[in-house]
Amino acid sequence: xxxxxxxxxxxxxxxxxxxxxxxxxxxxxxxxxxxxxxxxxxxxxxxxxxxxxxxxxxxxxxxxxxxxxxxxxxxxxxxxxxxxxxxxxxxxxxxxxxxxxxxxxxxxxxxxxxxxxxxxxxxxxxxxxxxxxxxxxxxxxxxxxxxxxxxxxxxxxxxxxxxxxxxxxxxxxxxxxxxxxxxxxxxxxxxxxxxxxxxxxxxxxxxxxxxxxxxxxxxxxxxxxxxxxxxxxxxxxxxxxxxxxxxxxxxxxxxxxxxxxxxxxxxxxxxxxxxxxxxxxxxxxxxxxxxxxxxxxxxxxxxxxxxxxxxxxxxxxxxxxxxxxxxxxxxxxxxxxxxxxxxxxxxxxxxxxxxxxxxxxxxxxxxxxxxxxxxxxxxxxxxxxxxxxxxxxxxxxxxxxxxxxxxxxxxxxxxxxxxxxxxxxxxxxxxxxxxxxxxxxxxxxxxxxxxxxxxxxxxxxxxxxxxxxxxxxxxxxxxxxxxxxxxxxxxxxxxxxxxxxxxxxxxxxxxxxxxxxxxxxxxxxxxxxxxxxxxxxxxxxxxxxxx
Length: 547
What we know:
By secondary structure, the protein is of the alpha/beta class.
């Protein structure tokens, strides 16, 4: 690593900056592997060499401190290199969500003021379509799968691999102000334009340390440690893949990056590279478990954290039957994002299955340095009795301070010294948070609240249900009533009808698992359920279609 000279006797003011994360793996695990699909294997030594070359190459093209560099790629070793090189040279890395519409991508690039963009050749048609409307982009670097240059018909300043080959071997990364902006990306809210969130070096370092402690230092199940093999199944464009690539790098763990998400390739990598630790939204795990290729794969060594949406009991049971260790977590784009994990503690591991499931399907306990409370509409803290529900509010040293260029939205986000989530939940005596709904998604029927998450959780236990979503629709008598959208498993299509599903929910009500007034009357069988670009249920779209 680079050295800085100081006058004799002058103490070193140690900045919490991203380059410090690399010190440890280069000492502890310099020969550990980093893998890209079935195409590339290299070591942490190679990673650091490529990080230096990437920074040198970008500087040669005109990128300087404070400039924003947009990265438009699949989950790859290249993206990991950008996670470090761009902020370490004092620039800001913008993660581009390629699942957004072209208009939204155009908005985010212009809004962030991105000066350079590193773009995979697969996404060149999108970039070409908006190129004339981009107001600040001056530098375009094209990424190709085989590393070669190609005839694209699009103008560019360099090809990624050629830029690294021609760059200086060493780069003197400066000691930056730890409060300097390091990364930015845009939320995929269901209303309005995407909102920009941003994080400093200090925030990312503290988040990394806290997640590492929470995931690996307490007795329980699903630990993430240096001897694990890590593969993200949350896109790297979304909240730094939950910040876990930074954790994996700090630990010097073997890392596997799958590129484009294709079930056959994902399962192949899990098998051939012996992947032991991943994280994803429920939809991804559901797709993999129901993939034909999964039937022949041993998944018993695999540990998976679920976030983005609630982990249903049905999915948890299905995963555990395959030998997968699975548990929930909680966070938001605005929280960097991890705030809690539902790892059962050691004394809980002997609990019977149903009781254990009630823990792992929650959102979990706060990770170190995170504080989570529930409050009423007047800002009063509510009791941790596992019943009393209120809005989830949070504090930690890594929460985004504001939305980029949006003071009005920032004022709504922060109130009374707490970040307000817009989620409804309760906390039990063990400190476990359970999210019961979004404030805007609670079904208000006849003056009573019905939790859409409870409805979805109960529906997931029906053997025929692959996926479900609950929304509120207008009702003349009750004001609003719940409606269920159901995707059936292929083997049950044509064999199960809405009346069968209603009987399942009525039985749940008779068993006291659901208030009788909460049993939906209407069940719609659909081929797919609308989702946002990061795999969350898009209830705004559902309400438009079915109201």
